[in-house]
C-alpha cells in the first residue's frame, strides 16, 4: 500500500511531522506544534484529504472559544459523526430519497 506522503507532509507544513512505517503497511504520524502533540495511524481505509482535515481540526481545537471558532473552519458538515455512523440529512424526505431502492424490471 502506498500513501501520498509528500502531499500529507506539504499539507501539514506548519507542524512538525514524524512518519513511522508499521509492519502491516500503515504509517504512524506524530504531529507536533508548540505544546500540542497528536499521534494518528494512517492506513488504507483513510482518505488522505479527510485525514489532513482531521489533523487540522484537532490541532486548532483547544480549551478557549477562539480556538473552537478556528477549528470549525476545518469541519465537514456532511460527514459529522452520528450515533449510528450514518450520514446526516437535512430533512426526512432527503433521507428517504437517498435510501430508496431502485430496481430494474
TrEMBL record:
Name of this chain's protein: DUF3509 domain-containing protein
Organism: Ectopseudomonas alcaliphila
Lineage of the species this protein comes from: Bacteria, Pseudomonadati, Pseudomonadota, Gammaproteobacteria, Pseudomonadales
Amino acid at each position: 500500500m502506498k500513501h501520498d506522503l509528500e502531499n500529507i507532509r506539504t499539507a501539514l507544513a506548519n507542524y512538525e511531522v514524524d512518519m513511522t512505517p508499521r509492519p502491516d503497511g500503515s504509517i504512524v504520524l506524530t504531529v507536533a506544534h508548540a505544546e500540542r502533540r497528536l499521534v494518528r495511524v494512517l492506513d488504507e481505509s483513510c482518505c488522505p484529504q479527510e485525514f489532513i482535515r482531521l489533523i487540522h481540526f484537532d490541532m486548532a481545537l483547544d480549551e478557549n472559544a477562539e480556538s473552537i471558532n478556528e477549528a470549525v473552519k476545518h469541519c465537514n458538515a456532511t460527514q459529522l459523526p452520528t450515533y449510528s455512523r450514518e450520514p446526516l440529512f437535512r430533512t426526512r424526505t432527503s433521507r428517504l430519497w437517498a435510501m430508496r431502492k431502485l430496481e430494474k424490471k
